[in-house]
Amino acid sequence: MESRRVLVRINMDVPLENQKILNDNLLKTAMPTIDYLIENGARVVLCGHMGDAGGKVVPELSLEPIAAWFAARQHIGEVYLTDSCVGDAAKSVIAGLREGQVCVLENLGFHAGEIKNDEKLSRQLASYCDIYVNEAFSLSEQVLASTNGILKHARIKVTGLQYAKELKALRKFLGKPERPVMAILGGDRIADNLELLESLLGRIDSLVLGGQMTNTFTAATGGSTGKAVVEEKRLPLARDLLDRTARKNIKLILPSDVRAGITADAVTEYAAGEVPESANIFDIGSHTEEFWKQLIRKAGTIVWKGHLGMAARADSGTYTVARAIAGAAAYSLSLGEESAEIIRTLGLEKGFDHVSDGGDATIRMVEGKTLPTVLAMGNAQTMK
After folding, report:
1. Terminal Cα distance for the chain, rounded
2. Which helix (H) or strand (E) is 263 found in, with range?
3. How, if at all, do strands 301-305 and 331-335 pair?
4. For residue 312, what pLDDT is reported?
5. Max intra-chain CA distance, the chain
6. What angle separates helix 317-326 from helix 337-345, to the nearest 10 degrees?
7. 27 in helix, strand or coil?
8. What pLDDT, on the 0 to 100 scale, is given for residue 151?
9. How far lies 303's CA from each of 169, 174, 316, 333, in Å?
10. pLDDT for res 184
11. What does DSSP assign to residue 129?
12. pLDDT averaged over consecutive 10-residue blocks of the chain (384 residues)?
């Protein structure tokens, strides 16, 4: 890597407010790769997009806050931001980089060729590097000049450390996971998890469902859910899933009790299906928590996605289950931004074998879909 120009495609699409980054997890996940390159004397060129600029220059979507974030890392030092992602000025900045220095190319979204996978833009980006590194697994569903087109022109193609870690974890789960395999899915609507549910049915031994969507399953079996939202149009689907899991010998586990009341601060525990008409359901109950913790301790592999109750607080069922998974001996994998945020809020990262930051791309891969960039990166080298 020493003295070589290395172009690293990362996901820079972080939330901003008044030019301040609200959540920097996407940037943090790229740091091990960037640190490795700096330590090995590479001349590092970072590229990415933020927001939906539609191929036009939108000043408020400039990557200046991103460049400032990297410059604030004590070991990086000064970070240069180009005035455009391509052009003579960008080329000059890259040519002037010394070993271990970093520059950020201005927002790729300002160039119409990025989302069109434009050949000219792909070739220009490739000309800026000796080595191309993809550290943007979360964009693998898209076909972009900076993730796909560039692969035709880059001489050496490498997967970033986090990219490789994401693939390894997914392939482990999709291959021959340690049994019994448990999936824990939460969320508000069955539709949000439908394709994932369908794909998991052929891989798991037990399915634990939480969150607001369980109200529909309770209603499908004739239970009372009070004022809780029920997806009336999904009742036949809920009954079908209950039937199919039974026929496949998959244990479908719903909450046995819930915390319900007029407000989240004044709840009573009721048996699931016996909630008074005047009450809202806010979370899973204590008996459910204890039973689920027992199941988690016996699992060989656990995949978890989404909140399991509607109360996001320290004593919530979601937090209780997250801690149980982190303390279990099972191989554990979390899916989706929500689960990752909960894990990091609780400081439980070390308790999980893999906390996915691949977003929807990871979920699509678990669903069995082919991701264009993963396919295109098939012959890429891995970072040593």
Report:
1. 10
2. strand 257-263
3. parallel
4. 63
5. 71
6. 80
7. helix
8. 97
9. 11, 11, 19, 5
10. 97
11. -
12. 89 92 94 96 97 94 96 88 95 95 97 97 97 97 97 96 96 94 94 91 95 94 93 94 94 96 92 95 95 97 91 80 97 95 94 95 94 94 85
Helix (H) or strand (E) holding 44, with range, is strand 43-47
Cα–Cα distance, 190 to 371 (Å, whole number):
24
Structural element, H or E, at residue 10: strand 5-10
Which residues does 32 contact at the CB level (< 8 Å), separation at least 6? 161, 162
Helix (H, G, I), strand (E, B) or coil at 25: helix
For 368-371, the CB contacts below 8 A with 24+ separation are: 368/199, 371/140, 371/141
- Total-model pTM: 0.91
- Predicted local confidence at residue 1, as pLDDT: 64
Please tell me the distance from the alpha carbon of residue 104 to that of residue 175, in angstroms, as a whole number: 38
Q: How far apart are CA 241 and CA 204, in angstroms?
A: 14
* 285 touches 257 (CB < 8 A): yes
Cβ neighbours of 381 (radius 10 Å): 12
Q: Which domains does the chain have, with CATH numbers?
A: 5-161 (3.40.50.1260), 168-366 (3.40.50.1260)
Which distant-in-sequence residues (6+ apart) come within 8 Å of 314 by Cβ? none
Q: What is the signed CA dihedral for 255, 259, 261, 266, rounded to 10 degrees?
A: -170
Tokens matching residue 354: 């893999």
